[in-house]
Amino acid sequence: MMILKTIVTNSILTCFIFLDKAVPSLCKMSWSIQSIVDTCSDRTNRVCDPGGILSEQDEARVRERLNYLEDTCTVNCESNDGGDVVPNVQAAIVIVSMIEPIDGTVESYATTLHNRWGVGNVSCGKSTGILLFVSTLDRSMYISTSDGVQPILTNSRLESIMDEMKRFLKEEEYAEGLLEYISSVNDYFKKGPPSFAENYIGYVMIGGVLLFVYVSAYIEKLRRREYAMVHSQLSKLDREKALVLMGRYKCTSCPICLEDFKLDPNAVSKNDEGTVTGNGIEKYIGSDGKPLQVLKCGHAFRATCWNDWISKGSAGFDVRKCPICKQDISASPPPPPTPTRHSSEIQSLVRRNANTTSEAPDQNDNAVQRRNQYDAERRFRLTRLMARYPRYISRTQVERWSSSSYDNDLARDEDFMRTNPARSDTTGGSRSAGGGSTSFGGGSSSGGCGSSW
Ligand SMILES: [Zn+2]
Ligand SMILES: [Zn+2]
Question: Whose atoms come closest to the Cα of 296: which ligand?
């Protein structure tokens, strides 16, 4: 037991003795503000590295670049007596391995040291100081700026500078990180204050992102609504197909725009006077409030749609013919509101059903004819639906749905259901916004020799 204790104690002592010579910064782990002030008493040396994190050569390189920065970077401002003065920048860098949490954060370390040392030329009433504080094992840094340099070193520029430094700091290339910092500050002083665009690029980007999110949500909502409308139209066609088979189909919407007809408020009084035949279609008017355009073949359209149709035409259709049944309409006078073919057939079918039960072959013929006539209307309606909603209905689908072999519900067709926006994956990809940018990226400590001073 004694032997083991001796070995452990000797090992620790060896570690301390070795590290104190080779890596002194790791042996003094944390620095209070006072201990930093005490150690870095030479104010002419702008690089304060009390724990010796930087090699002598690296510290000399950093100090040389920092002196160059102070010599070349100036701030334009008015002096107290009204004349223009251009005081030089004063810059300090503090790099320690760790701070004492009881003494504050890297921010309070930076600002306290900045103020206690008085970093910055104040010849024009404003201070021109910059102090970079880096705590390597805390993996944090803070750049403290005076009011005189803030017009040039704006917060967004400071964040950008620190972002550039991080790739070196993550690799523990501290000297390179500090040189990158000095170089960036130098560049910004050469550029001068940021332009309007640079100042507000953040707002513009946020506005752009918000607009994109809003527009995306709006489009998504619109597409869901469109899909619901197409679904409703297809369901209606499915129901109509069933009604046709039962001989109870009645056209109640415009085949061109697919909008429902409205009940004519005058139809009741007309019926009372016995002036109409009562077959159904004359009870309706278009959604435009005008009487329906009923062709001599019996197909009815909203008057406005029909007038547009024959004046503009549509690819693949002859405007002199009914677009549904292809019967010639050019020679016909403006058709009176006659019963639709379907309705009159239904009526005759009903009459026959009431009078006799021995006309089954005729009934079958009528049913087949009815079905064929309706199939033409259904195909036309599907074509119109495709023209209005090409995102959800393709020509291939219309062809497939119109074939005599297709017997499924349109609204449940897999090809159509696949276009449902609610079914598509909406992996919005959340990107990190970057955070406060003073941390190196959340990495863990790279270890070292611990001590408790
Ligand atoms: Zn219409
Ligand atoms: Zn027709």
Answer: 2
